[in-house]
Every structure is written in C-alpha cells, then in structure tokens.
Write a structure and sequence with these properties.
CATH class: Alpha Beta
CATH topology: Nucleotidyltransferase, domain 5
Radius of gyration: 16 Å
Number of helices: 7
Structural class: alpha/beta
Helix content: 40-55%
CATH architecture: 2-Layer Sandwich
Largest sheet: 6 strands, mixed
Strand content: 15-25%
Order of helices and strands: EEEEHEHEHHHHH
Strand order of the largest sheet: 1-4-3-2-5-6
CATH superfamily: Ribonuclease H-like superfamily/Ribonuclease H
Length: 203
C-alpha cells in the first residue's frame, strides 16, 4: 500500500485511467451539516491518493474536473452519500458512477450484509479494519491509522467491481444496475433537499 496525502487538491495531470475508486470522510453522516474533510482516490494499483480539504476551502479544480469527467468511471461503495456530500461541498455533480453496494444488493440476494467489510471478506478474502471510521476527520493533522483506514476504503473497489460485474452479467441484471447508477445523482439531490428515505414514487 502506498499512500500520498495532498492538501487542498490533486496535482495537475494525475492520470487514473478509465476508472477511479472514490470515497470520502466527513464530520458525520448528514451532508448538509457535516463537512467534507477528505476525498480518497485509487486507480486500483495499490496506491491511494488522499485529498485533505480545509474547512471553507473547497476550490479543488483538479478534483472537481475529475468528478465531472464522463470518460472516467467513479467506483464508490454507497455512492448515494459520497455523491451528495461532494455536491454539497465541492459544488459538482459526479458523472459516470458505479456503486458496489447497489451491485451487491442486486446479485448477493442470499445475504443482507452488503457493507464494504463484508464484500472484501467474501469476495477477496481481505479483512478490513473499521476502527478509525468514527474518528475526527476534521483534525489538522491526520494520524497514520486514519490515513491507512481512508486508503483501505478505495484500494479494493476495482477488484470488487470486477467480480460483481461478472455476477450481474450472470444474473441478467447489468442493465438494471446501470439504470440504478444513472439515477444516483437524482437520489443525491433528493437527499440534499431533505427527502431522505421518503419514497416519492409511493401513492
């Protein structure tokens, strides 16, 4: 594992190829209240780039350009939250999304355990530590434990996507998954205007 910490933005011309794994760390789980602190990225090669964002400083033009680039697929686990918090703080709606949690729910119907830790254990034989999940991500200096935790959340998403893609194809649900991914920006916007779990399609 190689971890590179960047303050405020990505370096110019950093190439993640056709797909980049993305995650975020915030001060809590309410996008309108809990600020975005860190965005993690990986091209799936064992290297993680962490962008630490200071309170009120969300210029990050290179990071924003990457999120908007339709030619680069962004692989998330539970994209609904990350896409919403990126929209709330960076002011851009992420394009070209893949969500491993949605894909898992479409093909791993034999279980109700769809967390990233569960997917890593079952599909890859990797045991993730979640010890730093609830730590202070707004700290000026992040600990080595926090950096390793943040990196681990993106290092395995490419491999998980590959396995889930095979299962989606096997079960005939690839097109359905893609339709769900394309709806995610709208779902994130609904979250940001406080619709939460309300089903707007219900009677």
């Amino acid at each position: 594992m190689t971890i590179t910490l960047h303050k405020g933005d990505l370096p110019d011309r950093l190439d993640f190829g056709a797909a980049v794994a993305v995650d975020s760390e915030t001060m809590g789980l309410r996008a309108a209240r809990d600020r975005l602190c860190v965005v993690q990225l990986s091209s799936g090669d064992g290297t993680a780039h962490l962008i630490q964002l200071a309170q009120g400083d969300y210029a990050a033009p290179n990071l924003k350009a990457l999120m908007l680039n339709p030619d680069v697929t962004k692989i998330f686990h539970y994209a609904r939250f990350d896409v919403a918090v990126i929209q709330a703080y960076l002011g851009v709606m992420t394009r070209s999304i893949y969500c491993t949690k949605i894909a898992s729910k479409l093909v791993r119907t034999y279980t109700d355990r769809h967390g990233l830790k569960d997917l890593c254990r079952e599909l890859l034989g990797v045991d993730l530590s979640k010890q730093q999940q609830s730590s202070d991500w707004g700290a000026e200096t992040l600990s080595e434990e926090q950096l390793r935790y943040a990196a681990s959340d993106v290092l395995h998403l490419h491999a998980i996507r590959d396995i889930l893609d095979m299962r989606l194809a096997r079960e005939g649900r690839t097109a359905l998954a893609q339709a769900c991914f394309e709806f995610l920006p709208t779902r994130a916007q609904l979250d940001l205007i406080s619709y939460g779990d309300e089903d707007i399609f219900s009677h």
